[in-house]
Amino acid sequence: MRFKIVTSVALVCCMVMFFGMLVFSVDNSASEEIYKEMISRAKTAKLEVNKHTEVNRLMNDYMKAKQTVNMQQLENCVNDISKYNANDLKQMRKLVQSVKNIKCYTIDGWEKDSYIVYLYYEYKVKNVRSNIPNLVRDIVCKDDNGKLCIFSGTMKSSTVRYIESTKSNPSVVNLINKVNKNVTSLKQKDSTVQTFFKAVEMQIKDNKKSYDKANDKNDDEKKQDKKGKDKKDNKKTKDKK
After folding, report:
1. 136-180 pLDDT tens trace
2. Which option is the CATH number for 10-188: 3.40.50.300, 3.40.50.1980, 3.10.450.100, 3.40.190.10?
3. For residue 43, what pLDDT is reported?
4. Cys-Cys with 162: which of 38, 48, 61, 113 at CB 3.0–4.6 Å?
5. Contact, 8 vs 136, CB < 8 A?
6. Are the CB atoms for 130 and 192 separated by under 8 Å?
């Protein structure tokens, strides 16, 4: 399950590797005592590196499938293949030349047979000299057939609350800070990395402007439609009189 991770310099490149959003449903079944236990466990849970062989294999297969745009292999790694677009992956493949040094930092999930995975990797971008570190967060759990997969979809809010609480886990905070520090240092040492990040940030700003402009246009059209409807209603009222 792909969803937005903690704000981070390194994670500005999430657009490169297509990470989705966690969608959750309302769940009022958990008591306040259970919530407290959840948060306590999430903040103190041990962050382990490459401990679970099945999870490691799944995450490596997932990254490879995206790099090679192997939709069949990708479908075997995720619970919902509709979240991924082959054309988008092909476009990103032109930019991202390779991914290496994949590491799976895991915390046991709240639900049985589930894991919160902080996935570390380094990627090589066209015309950029250095490999760039990155960190993203995924949820791995078993599907209805008992097979491990990367989950994307609706989750109970209690589960989401547990997942979000791991952001305060000292081990997770340290890991994110370490990646941020390495990226900042890399930007200072390698001008091509700095140029790449500036281009990414500029593209994000441009996309936001385009999105806002489209929303403003839609709002104006709705206002015009409403004015037109109000005029018609007023005319009908006058005609009746």
Report:
1. 999 999 988 899 999 988 877 778 888 888 888 999 999 999 999
2. 3.10.450.100
3. 87
4. 38
5. no
6. yes
- pLDDT, average across residues 190-207: 85
Query: In the structure, what pLDDT confidence band is assigned to residue 26 with cuts at 50, 70 and 90?
Result: very low
Domain ranges of the chain: 10-188, 190-241
Across the chain, which distance is largest between two alpha carbons, in Å?
Answer: 79
Arithmetic mean of pLDDT over the chain: 80
Q: Closest Cα to residue 183, out of 199, 196, 170, 172? A: 196
